[in-house]
Amino acid sequence: MAVKGRGAAQRLLVTAVVGAGTFTVSSVAAEERLHMRIAGSMQQWAVAAGQNINTGDGSDIDTAPLDQKHNSEIRFLGEADLAHAITIGLRVELEANTDDQQIGESFLFLEQAAAGRFEIGDTDNVAVSMQVSAPDGGISINDGDLLGIEAFVTPEGYEEGNTLIDSTALQLGDDTSGKFNYYTPRIAGLQFGASYIPRFEDGGSNNNSITRVDGQGPVSDGVALAINYTREFGDIEIEAYAGYLFGDSPSSAGSRAIHGAGAGLLVSLNDFEIGGSFAWSRGDVRDDFSLNGRSFDIGIAYEIERWRVGLTYLRGINEGSRADPADQRLDQLILSGTYELDAGVNLVAGFFYYDADGEKDLVADDEGVRSNCGFGFATALEIRF
What we know:
The chain contains 3 helices and 17 strands. The two termini are 14 Å apart. The protein is globular. A 16-stranded antiparallel barrel has the order 1-2-3-4-5-6-7-8-9-10-11-13-14-15-16-17. A hairpin with a 2-residue loop joins strand 15 (328-342) and strand 16 (345-357). Helix content is 3%, strand content 54%. The protein has a single domain, classed as Beta Barrel (Porin), CATH 2.40.160.10. By secondary structure, it is mainly beta. It has helices at residues 8-11, 126-129, 145-148, and strands at residues 35-55, 66-81, 87-95, 103-112, 116-122, 178-183, 190-199, 220-233, 236-248, 258-269, 272-282, 284-286, 289-304, 307-321, 328-342, 345-357, 369-384.
């Protein structure tokens, strides 16, 4: 089936084979252009949620009982074989949604079986791409679908993707910044990765040589390290991961360097998967917003023929605004399933529960959202090509 737990097999060579079958490797003469392919996916969602929203001033916020959501992307992929068994390739990911972020990833890579893989451009760091986390039944909650499609309203001050509030992935303000990644060949099940991130930028706007002005500026000189292990023991398959991320914060008063660490384990036995992950972080994206936080997820999934079902839970906590003593917290629980209608065509659905607490002083006397909890149902038709 197309939907699997987010283990190393799906997220690493991540981008190496870009999802087996997405494109075929063509042997070309050195003088020929890269052979390009187009791949991608489209998800069109229907979401129904009962939301209990609390605001700072006690005012009511109306939400639609049934909403339409979407999440689509188109990938432009190219590869060519060079001398000495070296492959050169590229990937450009277009966010095919009507919002302000149009390019998700854009990078080049060089790969050789004996030497490993080198990437340069706007993409995930190795601690994200090599991550192993809890399986799901088709709707993800770890840096996943529910917050990605805004299935429910989140409190003021949340910075999803920059903190551990909704994920165990070590992004912490890096996201798809411009960077240099290196992955070793996998030997005896082990693979290592390292990233250097000159500047932490959300969206990859990194074409600027000025990293600091009078002690002010973005997080810089980032380093990510990761190790991934995959091994089969009869009917049992083990996937494990550990990662670390560092970023040097600007020297303005109150700011601290970013440190993040995480680990994950996924065990597969025949048609069953069980696993989980956790992460911890310290530091500041800026001098008034703390990244001190922690998160974990756990899940189980079962797959047979065209069906897959899974149960996943995630909790994330982040300190957030230094001016507010309350921590941010988000709990998510989802029971979801997938039915494969045809090759590349899936129907997904799931029931979810969430409980989101924000910062109290931040919205003390205004209409901002302080907290939100509730239940919901989400379903989508998904096409992959």
